[in-house]
Amino acid sequence: MIEENKSIGVEELISEVKDEFDHIAEIYVWHALSEFQIEVHTGEAESLEQYIEMPYDRLEIDIGKSDPLSVEYYIIATCDGPGHPQGAEGTTIFMSKDVWGSEPRELAEGLTRLKQKLAGNCPTCGKAVEDLNSHYREYRDCQEDDRL
Fold first, then answer.
1. Would 123 be classed as within a structural domain?
2. Containing domain of residue 15, as a range?
3. First-last CA distance in the chain
């Protein structure tokens, strides 16, 4: 018997992840390759790389196309401090208001920015781009706005 892959929407997955911890400083998604790495920065993590098992094989993200983007993923909880460079390959989808030196980012805003990047749109100017890295090199204001 062939078992079907189990998928979950990004909003549902992040909601389940948030329920696992009492306090989360940051949730960051590294989306440079076909497999996404989701990092949850929390003092409750047992190590620098605590892998969180979920019963889903694939993550589905609605990016406004006919079919949602479907990717493999893994989740790491870490007690390492928050703060990642923002850019074409990575997006902070949540930043707590308690993190000093960073602007808070609500989950809805972070997910919107992630979906825009994955759909090939600059989250700052809204321009459709072939390569977000090239766009950021050409339009420094867009790159600066993407940073927290």
1. yes
2. 7-146
3. 48
